[in-house]
Amino acid sequence: MLFITLFYTFLVIGLFGFGGGYGMLSLIQHEVVKSHQWLSSAEFTNIVAISQMTPGPIGINSATYCGYTAVHNATGSMGWGILGSVTATFALMLPSFVLMIIISKMFLKHMQSPLVQNVFKFLRPAVVGLLAAATLLLCNEENFSSPTTDKWHFAISVLIFMVTFVAIKFLRINPIKMIGVAAVAGLFLLR
What we know:
mainly alpha; single chain
């Protein structure tokens, strides 16, 4: 029953998750942490961090790790956890795969149509909203602490965030290098 629910949940996320992996994060978090309670909020935050560091799209990586963790937490078995990974990943990719085949055929035929151009014009703000929701999802106490709990941890976390943002956005430093620098800074400063 868990695998059917896992498949259905990630199939729906794959079908309605616009804006790429970051846009899907808030949907994945809502389903696996709040609705089904397969993972704790701390486990999900760790999964997002690992998904960002591993090669590949963050949405698919998150689905893979969430599927594994959800099944592993329920059964305690690594083998079933791997099947959970495969189930969640396949379910998340299936709608995109089918829709892209259909849309690519239709788009090539009608791409200059004013109706198609207007649809894309109205989808852009929705995608920006989903990306903003994913960003706000990660700005929680588990990632930044809070000024009332641990002022030092909070100040250093916000400083690392701001320095990384400025370095990537304005100084055009490679994001992969900044992930490494931020990780090392976090290890040394937040011990």
